[in-house]
TrEMBL record:
Signal peptide bounds: 1-21
Name of the protein: DUF2147 domain-containing protein
UniProt entry keywords in alphabetical sequence: Signal
Pfam families per UniProt: DUF2147
Source superkingdom: Bacteria
Length: 143
């Protein structure tokens, strides 16, 4: 009985440690904050100490082949599927800041902060100027 109890505690400890180490890296289901509709799956990765997020799945079959028509620069007319929408966030305390997020439906690039809310929720805030002028979406981790 004692061995089983120690095993349970060990497994729980390792699971908690690995969950914290994972941080924001992984796949996340995006939800439109205005409609509540699930829109896509974004895979967040880390490269060179910065965080990036790429659209790896579009959930609405009618929009699978959509392009970023209103985007500018290198993103103009690119397919939304495969598009990097989170660009260059840096870890600052318990959140990621100093990067940008692209809204491919509007073609606009916003300043961005990202912060974990527990293990399976991610608060993604896009804003213009100061953080007070913006909006937040809560994404859910894909298991």
């Amino acid at each position: 009985m004692r061995k089983q109890l120690l095993t349970v505690f060990f497994v729980a400890f390792v699971g908690l440690f690995s969950a914290q180490a994972q941080g924001v890296v992984g796949k996340w289901k995006t939800v439109d904050d205005e409609t509540g509709e699930a829109k896509s799956i974004v895979e967040i990765t880390e490269s060179g100490g910065k965080i990036y997020g790429k659209v790896v799945e579009i959930l609405n079959p009618a929009k699978k082949n959509a392009k970023c028509k209103d985007c500018s620069g290198e993103d103009k007319d690119k397919p939304i599927l495969g598009l990097t929408i989170i660009k260059g966030l840096k870890k600052s305390g318990d959140e990621y800041t100093d990067g940008k997020i692209l809204d491919p439906n509007k073609g606009k690039l916003y300043k961005c902060t990202v912060k974990l809310d527990g293990h399976d929720k991610l608060n993604v805030r896009g804003y213009v100027g100061i953080s007070l002028i913006g909006r937040t979406q809560t994404w859910s981790r894909v298991k």
